[in-house]
Task: inverse folding
């Protein structure tokens, strides 16, 4: 597997971790446990995700996040708490993907993985903060369910087609940047509108 594919997988997994950290860990670990996902030699450090204890904790976290993400006020609280957790998790996953014999690459992967995960988390949390202002619960549930499906689908594509993974990471990065820009405009419009001049 070439450097482009490795960077693509690391970038994709890090970005997806910013949306659904526990689901990324659980889906990857379960796929390895069921031998659906063949693990290349250089990704041997990811084998820890197939450990029953890690799978159990990740499944509990993914289940808790699944339900918390569907409730407006709980979703925002969950995102606030995970502002630190998701970037660290994304950085550690990126670190586990790169060659352990190259310390410089590991440091770069850790920093870029954490940054990508933080950016994805920021885009997701900002967009959902806007969605959460809607008085009806349906839009929140639809947005959350779409995130669940997209995360699992893109995670599978990233591992199954490593060449495409770099493209996935680039598209996700553009999407997250667009979400941040859109959320900033909506929040500015809603909370910082200038009052109309009298008369």
Result:
């Amino acid at each position: 597997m070439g450097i482009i594919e490795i960077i693509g997988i690391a970038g994709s997994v890090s970005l997806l971790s910013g949306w659904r950290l526990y689901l990324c860990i659980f889906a990857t670990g379960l796929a390895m446990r069921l031998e659906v996902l063949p693990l290349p030699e250089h990704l041997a450090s990811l084998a820890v995700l197939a450990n029953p204890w890690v799978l159990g904790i990740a499944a509990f976290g993914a289940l808790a996040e699944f339900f918390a993400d569907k409730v407006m006020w709980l979703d925002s609280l969950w995102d606030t708490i995970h502002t630190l957790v998701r970037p660290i998790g994304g950085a550690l996953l990126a670190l586990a993907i790169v060659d352990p014999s190259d310390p410089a690459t590991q440091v770069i992967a850790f920093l870029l993985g954490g940054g990508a995960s933080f950016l994805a988390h920021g885009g997701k949390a900002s967009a959902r903060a806007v969605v959460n202002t809607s008085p009806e619960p349906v839009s929140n549930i639809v947005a959350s369910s779409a995130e669940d499906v997209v995360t699992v689908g893109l995670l599978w594509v990233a591992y199954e087609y490593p060449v495409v993974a770099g493209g996935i990471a680039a598209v996700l990065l553009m999407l997250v940047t667009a979400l941040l820009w859109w959320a900033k405009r909506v929040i500015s419009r809603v909370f910082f509108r200038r009052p109309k001049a009298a008369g």
